[in-house]
Design a protein that fits this description.
α3 packs across α12 and α14 runs antiparallel to α15. β2, α4 and β3 form a beta-alpha-beta unit. The chain has 430 residues and is mainly alpha-helical. It has a domain of 223 residues: Rossmann fold (3-Layer(aba) Sandwich). It contains 19 helices and 7 strands.
Length: 430
């Protein structure tokens, strides 16, 4: 397996990646644009000019839609649009139903501190379980409903309420693997969502009448028709095209300004991202590892290497520490979805990448390679980045100490001095 000589990404990255003649990946090369010829001050002026076109004419309506989950990026995008640019955004959330207490609190805190209106869509929980069970068998994926819902519901709302502008955070395909350049200024479209976000599996393909999953009950995941989008003039832009994206520094600003909460995560050293979801850095990430032989800790280490906060050897050490851990939340997921661990593993076997995994005569799987074996690859020192900005991730004090070991379907949506809890019943607050 080929690994980037600068960061840690493997050639079998599921989004797709390329390497140049120095062995540096496309993601690293596109990242160099951030500190190259792009004038970020001019980009911010360009953003101001762009959003001015979408301000509500009567100054009473919403100027844009912001998809939010309550994570650090949600805070930052809302902060820029409301506090810096002076827009009146409508915040929109697809309820992933894997909510943590800290996630519920962060979302409530976001709405309260930034003084925003909010819409949330909760799909029938029994349907979500059926969809997830089916997605595991079809795709080896427990997160399809999350991605489909998060990338569909905001567009449905923008279309129905005729709010033309949707502002997303960073384009992950650009930021991770360099699928696009910052110069492309790629926007969020129906095509991007289906081909990259959902890997071709839209709601129609996920329908299965034998399980009761019909197009009629899948409305939450069906993208608006082209004529509806055109009528409402819906446009989705990425804030990362206009601001030099640095998730760690941005989140630390949100901690300082608004009290965003962070916490330890089981399969990565990053304490800031996806803390709203029980499974994203746990079972969901474990699935990625069992399919591709790489995991979220690679994503976080690769980014920090590019930002000159750690060196490659430190990143490999972190990978070695986290990547093979069986997450404790796996048992919680299996109970929730109604699977045995054997069924779970059987679902993934047909989706294992043969470039990374092989099975012996006993039916046991093993990896063919790991970045741990590539710590001294040729050419590493030639493309090495200097360590200029090392600083650790901060774990903030919890407003609600104690175990966060239950899935919360929904919780409080306001915060005040008397209410610092994620759930409403006194019994659960004890």
């Amino acid at each position: 397996m080929q690994y980037c000589t600068r960061c840690l990404y493997p050639e079998n990255h599921p989004i797709g990646i390329t390497f140049d003649d120095q062995g540096v990946c496309s993601g690293c090369r596109v990242h160099e644009e951030k500190d190259g010829e792009i004038n970020w001050e001019e980009r911010l002026v360009e953003l101001k000019t762009l959003v001015d076109q979408y301000r509500s004419k009567n100054k009473k309506g919403y100027d844009c839609v912001i998809p939010v989950s309550g994570n650090g990026d949600s805070y930052f995008v809302t902060h820029i649009l409301k506090k810096v640019l002076g827009l009146n955004p409508l915040l929109v959330t697809y309820n992933i139903q894997y909510n943590t207490k800290i996630g519920i609190r962060n979302l409530a805190n976001l709405l309260t501190k930034l003084d925003c209106d909010h819409l949330q869509y909760t799909v029938n929980p029994n349907l979500v379980k059926k969809i997830t069970w089916l997605a595991m068998h079809k795709m080896g994926d427990m997160y399809w409903h999350c991605l489909a819902g998060e990338q569909t519901f905001p567009v449905q709302i923008a279309t129905k309420m005729e709010i033309p502008l949707i502002v997303w955070g960073v384009n992950g395909w650009l930021d991770q693997v360099g699928m696009f350049s910052h110069w492309d200024k790629v926007e969020m479209t129906k095509k991007v969502r289906k081909e990259h976000g959902l890997r071709g599996f839209d709601a129609e393909l996920m329908s299965d009448p034998t399980t009761g999953i019909t197009p009629k009950v899948m409305q939450a995941f069906i993208y608006p028709k082209d004529e509806e989008l055109e009528k409402a003039h819906v446009r989705g832009i990425y804030l990362g095209n206009f601001i030099r994206w640095d998730a760690q520094k941005q989140t630390e600003l949100m901690i300082k300004l608004y009290g965003y909460e962070t916490t330890d995560q089981e399969r990565t050293f990053n304490k800031y991202e996806t803390v709203h979801c029980h499974f994203n850095a746990g079972t969901h990430d474990y699935i990625k590892f069992l399919k591709y032989g790489y995991s979220k800790v690679y994503d976080h280490a690769a980014r920090d290497i590019r930002l000159k906060r750690i060196i490659r050897e430190q990143g490999i050490k972190l990978v070695k520490e986290y990547e093979t851990k069986r997450p404790q939340d796996l048992d919680r997921f299996l109970e929730w979805v109604g699977m045995t661990e054997k069924e779970f593993l059987d679902c993934l076997d047909s989706h294992r990448d043969p470039r990374m995994w092989e099975k012996n005569e006993k039916g046991e799987w093993s990896r063919k390679d790991s970045v741990v074996n590539h710590i001294k690859d040729k050419g590493i020192d030639v493309v090495r980045l200097d360590l200029t900005d090392p600083h650790p991730y901060v774990k903030t004090p919890s407003r609600e100490p104690g175990l966060d070991d239950k899935l919360i379907l929904t919780g409080r949506i306001y915060m005040n001095e008397r209410n610092e809890y994620a759930v409403s019943s006194e019994e659960e607050q004890k």
